[in-house]
Amino acid sequence: MSLKTKIEAEIKQAMLNKDKARLTPLRAIKALILLAESEKGGGDEMSEEVELKLLTKAAKQRKDSLAIYREQNREDLAAKEESELAVIEEFLPKQMTEEELEQALKEIITQVGASGPQDMGKVMGVATKKFAGVADGKTVSMLTKKLLS
Questions:
Q1: What is the pLDDT of residues 83-125, one digit of tens each?
Q2: d(Cα 16, Cα 9) in Å, to the nearest integer?
Q3: pLDDT digits (tens, 9 = 90+) for 7-29
Q4: Could you give the dihedral angle defined by the CA atoms of residues 135, 137, 138 and 143, in that order, rounded to the nearest 10 degrees?
Q5: What is the DSSP letter of 18?
Q6: Nearest alpha carbon to residue 148 among 121, 125, 126
Q7: Do 108 and 130 meet the contact criterion of CB atoms below 8 Å apart?
Q8: Strand locations in the chain, DSSP E?
Q9: HEC assignment per residue over 68-80
Q10: pTM score, whole prediction
Q11: What is the rounded distance in angstroms from the CA atom of residue 25 to the CA atom of residue 80?
Q12: 54 within 8 A of 32, measured Cβ to Cβ
């Protein structure tokens, strides 16, 4: 079942339950999907990779907004962003823990033969493809730097 179909089913359920807090982020995801479909010419089903990128982008936007709202002591807006983020994360694959990520990065470092900070690009090239959707890019970058230093 495609992401669009799942989202549409969840929207119907949220409407029946009169759950506005869930309905808003679901509609935002559907809008992103429709926009992406219209950009590439429409008609065809989107690949899982494209769907994953859309969801990851939406989640990142919510996280960034959440950090800003918390910084400015706007807990009312932060709570809204947090609830939207929770709904979006339901459709994302389970995120890797830092320990799992560190172990996988050590394997990649060994695999590409990286020996120091100058090899950061080699490691990140492989890591970003391998961890797309299951790990945050900033975290991957930070851990890679730490491991190569």
A1: 999 999 888 888 888 888 888 888 888 888 888 888 888 888 8
A2: 11
A3: 999 999 999 999 888 999 999 98
A4: 70
A5: T
A6: 121
A7: yes
A8: none
A9: HHHHCCCHHHHHH
A10: 0.71
A11: 10
A12: yes
